[in-house]
Amino acid sequence: MTRIAVNGAAGRMGQTVIETAADRDDLEVVVGFDVEAGEVDGVPVVAEDVAGALAEHGVDVVVDFSIPESTLPLAEACVEAGVGLVVGTTGFSDDGLADLDVVSESVPLLKATNFSRGIQVLQRTVREAVRALDDYDLELMESHHNGKVDAPSGTAKTLLEVVQEERDVEPVYGREGHAPREGDEIGVFARRAGDIRGEHELILAGNDEVLSLSHHAEDRAVFAAGALDAAAWLSGREAGRYEFGAVVDA
Ligand code: NAD
């Protein structure tokens, strides 16, 4: 039984992780962390001394869905307590990402911008499509709920990285003023409305056809389930940086 802590426990994802874990018998959420102490679905939420709480509750892995400013001190507490870390938070600066790399020298760390299995498959499909249709125009769109703090989404950035590994395209964000396409570019668009869980679409357009590759998350539970699978998989592993693709393929 993997003992899990959730950082950002009172947030949209944190609450969903706690609810989703309640239906599983391979793991248990034993404590949560957030800016205010309290309780979520019977799980105690504490607001200070994270390293102490990790030791006190015998935590194996922390699942983090918060903000980058919270993830980095949390990661230091994980190093202090010798506890693995699953990071779902997005929006890190390059320095923040480098700090997480340092953390992974001491504890097992798995970070993914998207914990849905469908997005993992989409990444592979995007790679194949961009490789095969190497002269088609590319445009990337994403839509999320109106409370999302980063744009474009971490998933859109990951999809952009996949595209750029295959083709030397320059991202153009928002494409203001109906500018015509210039050179080999990819438009990147972010929409924020209502409670949209997460939509991503890449179109590849030739002169006589359009290939559209898209994914819709219908419930946050899909991300929670993937993050919990990652936590169970990560428990007991050696220090190092791991990818969600390995969990999906396991
Ligand atoms: P949210 O705003 O609903 O929740 C964030 C929570 O973090 C809040 O409860 C907030 O109080 C808490 N928090 C802030 N500072 C903290 C601190 N210092 N210590 C502890 N807790 C702190 O946001 P959300 O919709 O749950 O999303 C959280 C993150 O997860 C975002 O970066 C989002 O992009 C990302 N996300 C990732 C995936 C994925 O599959 N990887 C899926 C959905 C969301």
Automatic annotation (TrEMBL):
Biological process according to GO: diaminopimelate biosynthetic process; lysine biosynthetic process via diaminopimelate
Residues bound to NAD(+): 8-13, 34, 88-90, 112-115
Subcellular locations according to the entry: Cytoplasm
Gene Ontology cellular component terms for the protein in this record: cytoplasm
Keywords on record: Amino-acid biosynthesis, Cytoplasm, Diaminopimelate biosynthesis, Lysine biosynthesis, NAD, NADP, Oxidoreductase
Domain Dihydrodipicolinate reductase C-terminal: 118-246
Ranges for domain Dihydrodipicolinate reductase N-terminal: 3-115
Main location: cytoplasm
InterPro entries (alphabetical): DapB_C, DapB_N, DapB_N_CS, DHDPR_bac, NAD(P)-bd_dom_sf
Gene3D superfamilies associated with the record: Dihydrodipicolinate Reductase, domain 2 (3.30.360.10), NAD(P)-binding Rossmann-like Domain (3.40.50.720)
Catalytic reactions of this protein: (S)-2,3,4,5-tetrahydrodipicolinate + NAD(+) + H2O = (2S,4S)-4-hydroxy-2,3,4,5-tetrahydrodipicolinate + NADH + H(+); (S)-2,3,4,5-tetrahydrodipicolinate + NADP(+) + H2O = (2S,4S)-4-hydroxy-2,3,4,5-tetrahydrodipicolinate + NADPH + H(+)
EC number(s) recorded for this UniProt protein: 1.17.1.8
Subunit structure: Homotetramer.
Role summary: Catalyzes the conversion of 4-hydroxy-tetrahydrodipicolinate (HTPA) to tetrahydrodipicolinate.
Protein known as: 4-hydroxy-tetrahydrodipicolinate reductase
Protein's organism: Haloarcula salinisoli
